[in-house]
Amino acid sequence: MKAACHSLSVAALGLNALEAQFAERNFAATFVRLIGVIMNVRGRVIVTGIGKSGIVARKMTATLTSTGTPAIFLHPADAGHGDLGMVTPDDVVLMLSHSGESTELGPIIQYCKRFAIPLLGMTAQAHSTVATAADICMLMPDVPEACPNSLAPTTSTTVQMAFGDAMAIALMEMRGFSADDFHKFHPNGRLGAQLIKVRELMAKGDDIPSVQEEASLLDATIEMTRARLGGTAIVDRDGRLIGAFTDGDLRRTVTGKQNLTEAVGRFMTPTPLAVGPEELAQEALHLMHERNVMLLFVCDKGKLIGAVHMHDLLNAGVA
Description:
The protein is α/β, with parallel strands linked by helices. It has helices at residues 2-22, 25-40, 52-66, 76-79, 106-114, 129-133, 155-175, 179-185, 189-193, 198-201, 217-227, 247-255, 281-291, 310-315, and strands spanning 45-49, 71-74, 92-96, 119-123, 136-139, 210-212, 231-235, 241-246, 269-270, 274-275, 295-300, 303-309. The chain has 2 domains: 2-177, Rossmann fold; 198-315, CBS-domain (Roll), CATH 3.10.580.10.
């Protein structure tokens, strides 16, 4: 337990040291230059590293790619066996190495110099090969490792990972990367489901149950049965939503022995709940739970354009 807590404490010190680096003028200016180069690259960010730095580089690649910055991982061991061909003059190389002296990185450095490909470095050693070769070098804090022998990469990789996330977030903000953009790159799984818009799940066109307020109770019942959404919208002659008539309303009406030829407008719920098409499905579901309803109508400037049932949201994985 003591060793575990110590490792967390050392990791925290490493992150604090990285945060302090951003307060230094030279480091901050270098970071701004690095972001500018990545923002303006016409191709991709080629991220590379060996050992534990390589594992961090893979994660960094995935984060960049999923947040709007095209990136690809290049394994140094494969680079000298043909994979350098994936690097084009339109790309930029981001090289991770805590020591800055990993021999496996040599061929990539030589390739970048030969073909004038921008090389961005991340290392903790200011006078290392990587730092010297890089066009822009982010000097990471030289923090102690958490392991008892100060050898196994622990704190250093934590700092690398945190810097990669900070870089990705900065690029996201520069690009104006929105939740909608994020959903485009994450269409599957629970995360994607929470970013679905109402317009993606709602019934449209002829699938929307609707009648005018002059329609009879029988006509409204037939429309509800056809659409199978548990209710129907009541609209005026301009297609504007003015009310709703649900299964519950029908049961209460039948219990009261009303004549089914009477106008449904007399028994509708006026000004029913409605949402816009760009509303997150998650927010629509929360509204349904709060107001204890199963059906929401979707309107654009007051006009009915869709309907969404709670079951549709749940079946899509919205929660």
